[in-house]
Design goal:
45% of the residues lie in helices and 16% in strands. By secondary structure, it is α/β, with parallel strands linked by helices.
Length: 462
């Protein structure tokens, strides 16, 4: 069953219907669903589909040749082109009168084995693009390679693409489609555990409890997820040990550069370089207080939920997991799940607000939202606002997110209003999100104020 990616499919269909030469680059982290998207798009279209492998040029060329000739026949093929240039020219020639999609998946494997492939593609695109109906799709999982060697200004193929798609993990509302049988509360927990990467979502069994799923994946040395973060790092970076230490430091609460440096015993300049790469991979994110751009206030957090959960709970329990003490490992994790879910719920709430705003249903037509933290000049205390966004210099949104088993009471609303008084906006609207609903006092006060929206978690479930 194929889920989501409607926007990407619509864009690819528009390109296909142009009936002229198109060149789309599709890239993103491994397991994110790139190949599934391509297969869904091409399932009813004339397609030559080739997947590169980590081998030499000759073997990849032979495989490519087979894929081309299998376009005409389903029988065995033993002939091969003498070069990628001849093979590609043959495909361009086929597409003079007929619309054909040419998919080269795992392109970095092919390009690394054939150093001249990018330049050959550049040459042939320039030669044939004006009278060809070929639709080329280059797909790759090596983020750094695709960005540096395909999309970058100095890359041979720069300026030839007609579209690019960076495939991101699903948001919460899309991830929920994988969990038909899970209770609503458990859907957020499932998203918090594995995030929105389709391959990880498929590792969960929605007929089992969250406890059983955690035990079957993160606490099971034979599961595919158990070593996944380590394997991904080895595929993407040259020195996984240092990256591993940095991610571990951030996941356990060391959010400032100085703290990360101290925890890992690496210079801040070294940490900065590695963190920059982790940000480009979508594993780590950089934050400053909303509306500010002060490097001094920069903090870092884990953006990918699978990495966040793994590095938060697995390393400290590795020894007992290795000995098969699954119940004991879960017993150590379970008391921390509610606190862990606080940050996940904030992200779910931000996604909800974006979807609300983009559908024209948000009370504030904000340009962006984020988190704010700093010192209250009046009380001299540190203050944190879960969500803040502005529409213009006079209008702002303030939000509070509570993932607790108790109903949110009036004090939370009053506290949010008090924190918002640090900012001088004429028009303010307040959003409060609650896992377990609201007390009567909070509901009554919200109605009295008129500029407060109370959102229950169960109303956020798609």
């Amino acid at each position: 069953m194929f889920i989501g990616r409607e926007k990407e499919l619509d864009s690819l269909d528009r390109l296909y219907k142009s009936n002229r030469f198109e060149f789309a680059v599709i890239y993103g982290r491994r397991r994110v669903g790139k190949t599934a998207l391509i297969n869904e798009f091409t399932k009813d279209k004339p397609t030559i589909s080739f997947t590169g492998v980590e081998t030499n040029e000759r073997q990849n060329l032979e495989n490519f040749s087979k894929c081309i000739f299998e376009y005409f026949t389903s029988g065995p093929v033993s002939i091969s082109f003498d070069s990628f240039q001849l093979a590609l020219e043959y495909v361009f020639d086929l597409a003079k009168e007929e619309r054909i999609v040419l998919v080269i998946d795992e392109y970095p494997y092919v390009a690394r084995s054939s150093k001249s492939l990018a330049s050959t593609l550049q040459l042939l695109i320039d030669k044939y693009k004006d009278n060809s109906k070929l639709f080329i799709i280059l797909c790759g999982s090596s983020m750094s390679y695709m960005e540096d060697q395909v999309l970058a200004y100095k890359a041979p193929l720069y300026g030839r693409r007609t579209a690019q798609f960076k495939i991101q993990p699903f948001e919460f509302r899309e991830a929920c489609q994988y969990f038909s049988y899970l209770p609503d509360e458990c859907k957020a927990l499932a998203y918090g555990i594995v995030g929105g990467t389709p391959q990880y979502l498929l590792q969960l069994d929605d007929r089992l409890s969250i406890e059983e799923n955690i035990k079957n994946t993160y606490l099971n040395t034979t599961s595919s997820i158990y070593e996944e973060p380590q394997n991904l790092l080895k595929q993407e970076v040259r020195e996984p040990a240092i990256y591993n230490a940095i991610i571990g430091a951030i996941a356990t609460g060391h959010s400032k550069m100085s703290q990360i440096s101290s925890k890992t015993q690496e210079d801040t300049s070294v940490c900065a370089t590695y963190i920059k790469n982790l940000i480009s991979l979508g594993i780590v994110k950089r934050e400053v207080p909303y509306g500010e751009d002060s490097a001094r206030k920069t903090i870092y957090s884990i953006e990918d939920n699978m990495f966040r959960f793994w590095y938060r709970f697995v390393p400290e329990n590795t020894s007992i997991i290795a000995r098969g003490a699954t119940d004991l490992a879960y017993k150590r994790i379970e008391p921390n799940l509610s606190q862990y879910m606080g940050g996940v719920f904030e992200e779910i709430c931000k996604q909800y607000l974006w979807n609300l705003m983009l559908s024209g249903k948000c009370e504030i037509d904000f340009v962006d939202i984020g988190r704010w933290w700093g010192t209250n000049s009046r009380t001299r205390q540190q203050v944190e606002i879960d969500i803040m966004g502005t529409a213009d210099k006079n209008t702002a949104l303030f939000g509070e997110c509570k993932w607790t088993n108790e109903k949110v009471d009036l004090g939370v609303l009053e506290g949010l209003v008090e924190k918002s008084q640090m900012f001088h906006f004429e028009n303010k609207h307040y959003y409060i999100f609650a896992k377990s609903g609201f007390t009567k006092g909070c509901v009554d006060k919200a109605k009295e104020m008129g500029n407060v929206t109370l959102v229950r978690y169960k109303d956020m479930i798609p």
